[in-house]
Amino acid sequence: MLPNKPTIKDVAERAGCGIATVSRVLNNSGPASVASRVRVLAAAEELGFKFNEFGRSLKSQRSKTIGVLVPTLSNPVFADAVQGIQQAAAVHGYDVILTCADYDQMTEQKALATLLAKQVDGVVLTVSSPENSKVLQVLNDNNIPHCLIFNQPTDSGISAVGVDNVEAARIVGQKLFEFGHLNAAFVAVQFAKSDRSADRYKGFAEIYAKHNLNQPTLLEVDYAPGDLELALIDLFEKSPSTTALFASNDMLALACIRALRSLGKSVPEDISVVGFDGIAVADLVHPKLATIATPCHDMGSKAAQLLVKALQKNEKPPAGVISLPFEFRCGESLSIAAKKNSDGQAATRPSDLSATQMQPNK
Amino acid sequence: MLPNKPTIKDVAERAGCGIATVSRVLNNSGPASVASRVRVLAAAEELGFKFNEFGRSLKSQRSKTIGVLVPTLSNPVFADAVQGIQQAAAVHGYDVILTCADYDQMTEQKALATLLAKQVDGVVLTVSSPENSKVLQVLNDNNIPHCLIFNQPTDSGISAVGVDNVEAARIVGQKLFEFGHLNAAFVAVQFAKSDRSADRYKGFAEIYAKHNLNQPTLLEVDYAPGDLELALIDLFEKSPSTTALFASNDMLALACIRALRSLGKSVPEDISVVGFDGIAVADLVHPKLATIATPCHDMGSKAAQLLVKALQKNEKPPAGVISLPFEFRCGESLSIAAKKNSDGQAATRPSDLSATQMQPNK
DNA sequence: CCACCCTGTGGAAACGTTTCCACTTTAGCC
DNA sequence: GGCTAAAGTGGAAACGTTTCCACAGGGTGG
Predict the structure, then answer these.
(1) Under an 8 A CB cutoff, do A143 and B117 touch?
(2) Which DSSP symbol is given to B266?
(3) Were both Cys, which of A139, A323, B151, B257 would link to B130 (CB 3.0–4.6 Å)?
């Protein structure tokens, strides 16, 4: 019925020449007379010949495939980056095998194992903690070229593309300071599991230290429903003069705005909120989210380019962190700090805050 | 330096047996004495032996890889689905090669070609229009098992997993009707390119026809900045009695809310807005978005399961559309229709609409 | 006690490529 | 016109695996 897929042998037979010649013609990898050239090309065309990549890969030990390992696609940041990787890879004839590790070290290792089994030529990845990462260890041991994204490893022997989280957070800190926010908090999910959160807190705190202000409160929350509200209530009890929140990512920032609203506080009138990442929806919501816009897509494509270029030269991507430009995007969620008196009530809006806290709207 | 990757031959040598025995032991694919079993296992362990998938695939003509073709990862809907596919595939030892086609038929075909070149065993995909799709044609011609997601093909010979868009849209229509929205509009991006948008409009319009009301206005917009605002201004001029918008997806719904705000209309007081998809942020924004929550993740994993199961039995996934349950989520963006007088002004808020239209807030 | 059948075994072919190498042929040059 | 060099060519090995097959040995049933 359906003729079995034609092989190079079939083409050779039809073109009346040896398989070596076919290979040379089709790959432009060696001399061939014009005559055989046209015969082979014609034969291949007629038969609808396509190379079998297995045979190719077996011989060359190259899969023309790069592995991608990210925590999740649920965060648009990673989704965008993956798309960037995919596009850049496609341009150079590489495919992308995708794995997600869900911020879990065990899963990370398993995912990497399957990538290795598929003999990916290289890997673009984000790990939960680049120092002491088993995954990076394995990649090194197996001599697999790789490039980190989002992570900013302190170990300079490794190749990475990202944004300067510390510097970006400094800018957020500076802006908040300029807007009069003398007491701020930093909100993060799973702070311990993310080097990025740590860097952001670091840069943020630096600015407050520089101005001899209180260190920003570190608010670590989890995804349990209501947890954020409780944490915020606690925050305002302990630090009633807090006027701004810096969330470690945009999704969390949006969640903060919602939680604040349910506590009867409005953004930015009572509290300013700044996010990080610059995801698309940040611009669609009201108030527009103030955030650091990061080039996630470019991060992915840059890393892929770096990696592919290195693979083609049969080497590793250049060591060192490439920092891509970011931009502070001043959305409506950030405004001048409301004047507060000592017990944290906004002077301009003398309504009883503790009362509104007790009576969340619905 | 680094010892070349051990092959099955090395294991055989070390275990003092033939390669056939090693293969049988390691794959549990044939008889082997206990003695050789332990020797082989030990040898493999000591050498850190890993199968070379190229050799395997070459022999078996199976790649244990499934291809994924979606329009984009920027829409969280697809990102979630891809993650579902990936997870389900991983469970069964399959990997995922990802390609994005950006709603473009040319790109779709190219992407599929690279998937085929990589000899994927099957494909999970979303195409722009499942009828007359070249991509599906190619898949059929090449006898590649495949399963659609999101699409709801009318051709019942094909396997697909999705939600019943028509029915879901009927429910939206019914809800809007019950809330007193007698004049509504349907907003879509690239209506012509999406069978899903068409289905949604169909179900929506059906309800309005059933109640002998005006057909919902069809508002086709594009992504050009400001286009949505213009379209809405036009809409309210021509159909001032419109009290509700049904957007073909959540991102668009959020954009609508923003555009409406910039036109001086508030949601839901002046206009109600309903989205479609149920993306995560829909619940974080204010007003919470009323939407149809669809199980994107499950859609992906279900499709992958179907496909993998079929592949293991060396057949195609069962023909027919599997409709997954969805849920109408009534967010704050939907409320009782404001009473309007004939020229479209909300009776309860007699501010001059045309004036506020001219003076968008910022 | 012999024929038989299982179990365990390893050699070898096959999968589709690429590429080395050795063999034509042709052209170029004195 | 002979020599060499280059260009064109195909055979065959190699990549690492699976699996068919043939064969050895030892138990069983007649």
Answers:
(1) no
(2) -
(3) B151
Contacts of B119 (CB under 8 A, 6+ apart): A52, A53, A54, B57, B61, B63, B65
* Helix or strand run (H / E) with residue A323: strand A320-323
B176 CA: distance to closest CA in chain A (Å): 22
Question: Could you identify the residue written with the tokens 């030269």?
Answer: A313
Peptide bond into B130 cis (omega under 30): no
pLDDT 10s per residue in chain A (362 long)? 456 789 999 999 999 999 999 999 999 998 899 999 999 999 999 999 999 999 999 999 999 999 999 999 999 999 999 999 999 999 999 999 999 998 889 999 999 998 998 899 999 999 988 888 999 999 998 899 999 999 988 888 999 999 999 999 999 999 999 999 999 999 999 888 888 999 999 999 999 999 999 999 999 998 788 899 999 999 999 999 999 999 999 999 999 999 999 999 999 999 999 999 999 999 999 999 999 999 999 999 999 999 999 999 888 999 999 999 999 999 999 999 876 544 444 444 333 333 333 333 33
Q: Which residues touch strand C (CB under 7 A)?
A: A 4-5, 7-9, 19-20, 23-24, 26-27, 29-30, 49-52, 54-56, 58-60; B 16-21, 24, 30-36, 55, 58-59, 61
Domains of chain A: 8-51 (1.10.260.40), 60-163+296-320 (3.40.50.2300), 165-293+332-358 (3.40.50.2300)
Q: Which nucleotides in chain D lie less than 7 Å from some protein C-beta?
A: 7-12, 14-21
Cα separation, A301 vs A307, in Å, equals 10
Query: Mind spelling out the 3-state secondary structure of B79-93?
Result: HHHHHHHHHHHHHCC
Chain B residues with CB under 8 Å of A55 CB are 58
For chain B, helix (H) and strand (E) counts, in that order, are 13, 12
